């Protein structure tokens, strides 16, 4: 599911290029293809996240997948810009539904909060794989003269298979002691979680992380282009060989490193202090951004994609630890809250960076200065988290009550 979602969401840059030509739309209009699906995910996570706790994980996942599949197959008849954007928005709502169900399910199948974090990194690793293969599929389709809409048809086929699998797989049951609480799950109770310090803290962290991360795949290509924009080869200022190739495929390099880092994170987060790892890795991101800006694009060419390694484990761990601070019957609701802030960061971050860059003459480096600010705030928060360790007692209580593990370092 995570891979299928990433195949479509992280291909939007390639799709926008085709849509602008086909429908003669402006950059602002084309940007709706990114911002509206993110808005759909955000609102769906916040207002519908409680369904995973109210209806159960399987029912919620199947509903979300069915809605996503309908949107995907409808792209076969999508020949109007407004219709295309509407389908993308619908797919965003569907993602918010099935992803909160999936995130809650990870808690059900985990035997400890430490294993929960490792499993979450594994799930997000497949998201990283989808982010790599999605744009490649679009490029291959266009090269073969096949409409880009068939990417969604492929995703729809995967979605249909996932629905069949989800329908037949046996899902874990809630423990009996939670049954009365489950029946009282509601939208009002779900929204009330926004005020909870654990949910709010990890949600703000997710917002800052995604806002900083989006600078890489949205604005890094613009920052790395040569100053002489009139020349045909926008990367001609880089020497022939590895540097030129890295400049051309810098975003792909970032996604590859991020995916590899998340697979390594399955092992790493099961063995090391998560708070220390996140603090060090967020500091490394700030260092890469700062040196890349001060040293110029020839230095940033190497340091910006490298952040994929350091960014790899941060978001899955935020999701895992944020969800693990709550009882299992609340996992869907809190996953929806974190997902809301995640999508808000993905929508607001690039927009703020773009506005600042435009205000300063159009140079993308000013947008990266904003991204460095987001990354710095993230580092300061994680530094506090490592020093004060505000979740230690809460995670220990959850370990003892929900997982039957006492005295384990979480």
Task: Write up this protein.
This protein has 410 residues and is mostly helical. It is built from 20 helices and no strands. The longest helix has 31 residues, at 113-143. Mean pLDDT is 85; it is low at 175-183 and 406-410. Its main location: membrane. Keywords: Membrane, Transmembrane, Transmembrane helix, Transport. It is a multi-pass membrane protein.
Tell me what portion of residues adopts beta-strand conformation: under 5%
Distance between the termini: 27 Å
Taking all Cα atoms into account, the compactness measure Rg is 21 Å
| Helical content band | over 70%
Regions with pLDDT < 50 over 5+ consecutive residues?
175-183, 406-410
Query: Mind describing the biggest β-sheet?
Result: none
Tally of alpha and pi helices: 20
Number of strands: 0
Structure classification: mainly alpha
Q: Using the alpha-carbon principal axes, give the shape.
A: globular
Along the chain, the helix and strand elements come as HHHHHHHHHHHHHHHHHHHH
What value does the average pLDDT take? 85
Write a compact overview of the structure shown:
It is a multi-pass membrane protein. With about 400 residues, the protein is mostly helical.
Considering the chains and any ligands shown, give keywords for the structure.
mainly alpha; 410 residues; globular
């Amino acid at each position: 599911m995570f891979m299928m979602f990433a195949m479509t969401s992280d291909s939007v840059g390639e799709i926008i290029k085709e849509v602008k030509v086909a429908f003669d739309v402006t950059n602002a209009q084309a940007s709706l293809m990114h911002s509206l699906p993110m808005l759909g995910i955000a609102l769906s996570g916040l207002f519908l996240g409680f369904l995973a706790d109210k209806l159960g994980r399987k029912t919620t996942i199947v509903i979300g997948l069915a809605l996503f599949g309908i949107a995907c197959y409808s792209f076969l008849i999508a020949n109007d810009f407004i219709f295309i954007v509407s389908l993308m928005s619908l797919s965003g709502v569907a993602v918010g539904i099935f992803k909160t169900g999936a995130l809650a399910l990870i808690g059900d199948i985990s035997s400890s909060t430490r294993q929960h974090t490792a499993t979450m990194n594994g799930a997000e690793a497949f998201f990283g794989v989808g982010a790599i293969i999605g744009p490649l599929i679009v490029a291959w389709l266009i090269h073969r003269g096949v409409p880009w809409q068939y990417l969604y048809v492929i995703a729809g086929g995967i979605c249909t298979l996932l629905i069949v699998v989800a329908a037949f797989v046996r899902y874990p049951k809630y423990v009996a002691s939670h049954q009365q609480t489950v029946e009282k799950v509601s939208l009002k109770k779900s929204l009330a979680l926004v005020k909870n310090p654990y949910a709010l803290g990890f949600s703000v962290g997710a917002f800052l992380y995604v806002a900083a991360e989006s600078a890489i795949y949205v604005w890094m290509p613009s920052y790395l282009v040569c100053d002489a924009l009139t020349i045909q080869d926008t990367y001609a200022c880089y020497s022939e060989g590895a540097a030129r190739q890295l400049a051309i495929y810098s975003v792909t390099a970032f996604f590859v490193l991020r995916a590899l880092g998340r697979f390594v994170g399955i092992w790493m987060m099961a063995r090391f202090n998560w708070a220390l790892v996140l603090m060090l890795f967020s500091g490394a991101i700030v260092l890469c951004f700062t040196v890349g800006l001060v040293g110029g694009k020839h230095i940033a060419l190497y340091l910006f994609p490298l952040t994929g390694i350091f960014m790899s484990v941060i978001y899955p761990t935020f999701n895992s630890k944020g969800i693990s601070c709550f009882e299992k019957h609340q996992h869907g609701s809190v996953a929806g809250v974190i997902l809301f802030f995640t999508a808000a960061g993905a929508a607001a971050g690039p927009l703020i960076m773009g506005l600042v860059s435009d205000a300063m003459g159009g140079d993308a480096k000013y947008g990266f200065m904003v991204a460095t600010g987001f990354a710095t705030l993230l580092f300061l928060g994680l530094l506090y988290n490592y020093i004060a360790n505000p979740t230690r007692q809460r995670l220990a209580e959850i370990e003892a009550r929900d997982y039957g593990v006492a005295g384990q370092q979480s």
